[in-house]
Amino acid sequence: MKRAFSLDRNLSQRLGFGLASLIAVMTVTPIVIVIIYIIYQGGGAISWEFLSGFPHDGMRQGGIFPAIIGTFYLTMGTAAFSVPLGIAAAIYLSEYAAENWLTRLIRLAIINLSGIPSVVYGLFGLGLFVFFLQFGTSILSASLTLSIMTLPVIISTSEEALRSVPQSFRTVSISLGATRWQTIQRIVLPEALPGIITGVILGLERAAGETAPILFTGAAFFLPQLPGSPFDATMALPYHLFVISTQVPEMPFQVQYGTALVLLSFVLVMNLIATVIRSRARARRQW
Amino acid sequence: MESNLSWREYVITRAIRASGYSAVVFVALIFYFLLREGLPALTEVPLGDLFSLRWYPIEKYFGILPLITGSLIVTIGAGLVAVPFGVGTAIFISEIAPRWAREILKPLVELLGGLPSVVLGFLGILVLSPALREMLNLPTGLTALTGSLLLGGIAVPTIVSIAEDALDSVPRAYRDAALALGATRWQTIWRVTLPAAKSGVLTAIMLGVGRSIGETMTVMMVTGNAPVLAATPLALFSPVRTMTATIAAEMGEVASGSVHYHTLFFIGIILFLISLIVNITASSVVFQSKKRAERVLS
Question: Quick one: pLDDT at residue A92?
């Protein structure tokens, strides 16, 4: 035996299992603590006034309504571009694309899109949407920037959902005389819908929490009124949290934690919805 | 009616096809606009000055080396945190944990991946950095180390999910054979399953750590924003400034078309190329073919 066991095998088993469990617990505990801590610290700030009022006294008092609305607008704007485009791209990859160099190139591009740093998306949005297309620092520019960033998440999760629909469903539909698009529209898409929705929500969740891509494309430090059109800049929750935790001196902790809590709730609720849809669809699946 | 239908089908098919190509178009567009706005920096700033040690744009010093070393030291620190925790958690979830523990752990790790980076940065400022300052007796808690710890946390979910997939795809027969030969479960994990999943685990580490070099908000908020050359590992305990943080902090205040503006885009080109290299390597043929070999063997 070349590799003599220096450790007793049962001892090594216990050490190894113990270490792996410890690491897993140490990884997860901070997440739980962070969430509970923010709820504990920020819970006191939450009131109707905080959620529905405008900030005043240099953001130290009042509410965060414009930031909430701004994040809602940005998320909807992102969805308007990235959802149709992402699902169509997923349909192409799952239903039409042949295994050739072009498809490999598309997949490589998707992987790269998902890896490009968020601040580089911000630069790109500044160069293309703000300056070149002259949309200015606006909801439109920021939403377009965020949608390109969200695209890879939506494409890859939707493609997975489409691919999990059994091939026989398509074969039967085509053999009954349906065209390819009719098959996709009436058979494949409805079956894949829960998976697609999950992917869309996860993608939008990421967009809602992002700050760097909107820094120079659409986020405003402070606005006295709500944005009136897609060509206006807007306040947004993540950017607002950044501003009040780094740029405003003597900021009351409670307002900061309250803002963090609202942003966190946005993300947690979206995450929860996605999880529920996914697990319900799994339970209902009959094939 | 019949022709109307096929006309509609034609249009829809075309639209789907065009959407399919969109990802390629966007990557090309991003690269084009970075080059368009960033390359002028090369003619405006002499190359020797660009790769020098002083970043002080107000006085026209555009040396990006301190920013590059800043990014490197924070990323290396993040890797030291994320690799053991990420791979360890993946092993636990995929190989050891009972079903109920898995059902709790997986959503929690996914949740970490969904936490906005600005929330982590915020807690970094208010909680982690004062704690580190006290514990390590530092003049300030806003250091590369603080950034590394949080960035490590951000990289963990990526590593866990890809590494877990890789471990999962190791054929059942490998484990059964090892166990039948008298190996303990741990010996099976350590000597059979993990080596068999090596390529996938490496991909996980590459993507997790490689992508964390592009993280912006957390790093900008907690690393102290001092563009000082990080020459020794000791720089981990002092403030640094990363490439991403520099762009995020300064782009809002520069005049478009200025030297400073072009230089910030030039840094963007560097970041873009780094992410391109990381992602292409991670999805490269070497890794893929190995995975296929493992599947064929099963």
Answer: 95
| Closest alpha carbon within chain B to A258 | B119
For the segment A124-150, the average pLDDT, to the nearest whole number, is 95
Residue whose C-alpha is closest to residue B224's, from B296, B149, B147, B152: B147
pLDDT attached to residue B295: 47
Let me know if residue B187 belongs to a domain: yes
A210 touches chain B (CB under 8 A): yes
B114/A271 touch (CB, cutoff 8 Å), yes or no: yes
ipTM of the complex: 0.90
A5 domain-assigned: no
Q: Does A242 contact B187 at a Cβ distance shorter than 8 Å?
A: no
Structure tokens at A87: 């699902």
Mean pLDDT lowest for which of A68-72, A169-173, A280-284, B165-169?
Answer: A280-284
Domain assignment of residue B251, yes or no: yes
Which domain does B276 fall in, by range? 43-297
| Contact (CB<8Å) A112/B214 | no
Q: Answer yes or no: is A29 within a domain.
A: no
Residues of A in contact with B121 (CB under 8 A): 242, 245
Whether residues B114 and A106 touch (CB distance < 8 A) is answered with: no
Provide the CATH number for the domain around residue B154. 1.10.3720.10
Q: State residue B107's pLDDT score.
A: 86
Q: What is the pLDDT of residues A186-220, one digit of tens each?
A: 999 999 999 999 999 989 999 999 999 999 999 88
d(CA A202, CA B147): 25
How many structural domains comprise chain A? 1
Closest among A223, A228, A227, A253 to A241, alpha carbons compared: A253
Q: Please give the backbone phi and psi of residue B230, each rounded to the nearest 5 degrees, phi first.
A: -95, 90
Tens of pLDDT, residues B223-263: 988 888 877 788 888 899 999 999 999 998 898 889 999 99
| Structure tokens given for A74 | 């940005």
Q: Using CB atoms, which residue from B105, B127, B252 is nearest to A215?
A: B252
> Quick check: is B31 in a domain?
no
The CATH number of residue A275's host domain is: 1.10.3720.10
Owning domain of residue A82: 64-284
Determine whether the interchain pair B271/A131 forms a contact, defined as Cβ–Cβ distance below 8 Å. no
**Rounded Cα gap, residues B78 and A20, in angstroms:** 19
Instruction: Determine, yes or no, domain membership for B35.
Output: no
Give the three-class secondary structure for A51.
helix
Q: Has residue A241 been placed in a domain?
A: yes
Quote the number of domains for chain B. Answer: 1
